[in-house]
Amino acid sequence: MHRTDFGAVYGFGAYEWDLLPGDSGGLVWAFEGSMTVHLGNRRWALTPRQGAWIPPGVPGDVVPNSCSRAMFIQCADVPPVHGARRVLVSERAAEALRTLAQTDRTEVARRSWRTARSALHPVDDDGLVIPIPRDPRAYELATALLNDPRDARTLDQWGESLYTSGKTLQRLISRETGLSFPNWRTNIRLNASLPALGRGDHVHDVAAGVGYTSTNGYIDAFKRHFRTTPGHFSHG
Fold first, then answer.
1. What counts of helices (H) and strands (E) characterise the chain?
2. Cβ(92)–Cβ(66) below 8 Å
3. HSE on the CB side for 16, CA within 13 Å?
4. Is the sign of the CA dihedral 169, 175, 177, 179 positive or negative?
5. What pTM does this model have?
6. Which residues are CB-neighbours of 6 under 8 A, at least 6 positions away?
């Protein structure tokens, strides 16, 4: 960690995530691989193309997945948005952030941060965000899918095991996540596939491991949500 005139820069590895300040706003970003950021009742799967603005006081934690190096920039100029916000990290921003992580020169750090800050673009919460419902029935379903994304039960089958109806579960999921059950489950599966891709597992095996019966179906879903192919992601 080194301090600057705009805040503090924390660089850490996969086994040092406890260094992340819990009560300070800032930007979290992974140099390579993927991380999952838990913020309140949401989960974001972040690749090096995305970072997250975290306002002060927002409870959360980070799971490194396949990420071995990351940084947290504690700063006062977090955008005045409601809650946390995901941002697109351009190549220009990524280069500036890498320089910022390595330098201990104040002027270089200040210039790098200005460059990175201007090149970070907020993006809509699409398939990378995994909202977690609060209702006990839908929450139990969410926990089960997060633990085993291959579970292919329908909502009616889930309803039987949770002593409710499939229609009630769909209503709860739609109301509390803003997504249909199939889209929500797709997000969970794609998020769960990132660590295996980061390890270099074969795409066919990754797809089957998170519940896809068709490798092409998995590739199409991955491209829609991450704007790259699983193969490209796996190779960096």
1. 9, 11
2. no
3. 11
4. positive
5. 0.63
6. 75, 76, 77, 110, 113
C-alpha Rg value of the chain to the nearest Å: 19
The two structure tokens encoding residue 171: 């209503």
> What is the C-alpha end-to-end distance of the chain, expressed in Å?
26
Measured CA to CA, the distance from residue 210 to residue 45 in angstroms comes to 15
> For 112-155, how does the pLDDT look when each residue is reduced to its tens digit (9 = 90+)?
988 998 888 877 655 467 888 989 999 999 999 988 999 999 99
Taken in order 135, 138, 143, 146, the sign of the CA dihedral is negative
Strands (E), 102-201: 120-122, 129-131
Instruction: Say yes or no to pLDDT of 26 above 80.
Output: yes
User: Which positions ≥6 away from 114 have C-beta within 8 Å?
Assistant: none
List the Cα angle 113/4/18 in 5-degree steps: 95
Query: If DSSP codes are grouped into helix, strand and coil, which group holds residue 150?
Result: coil
Task: Please give the structure tokens belonging to residue 85.
Answer: 């916000």
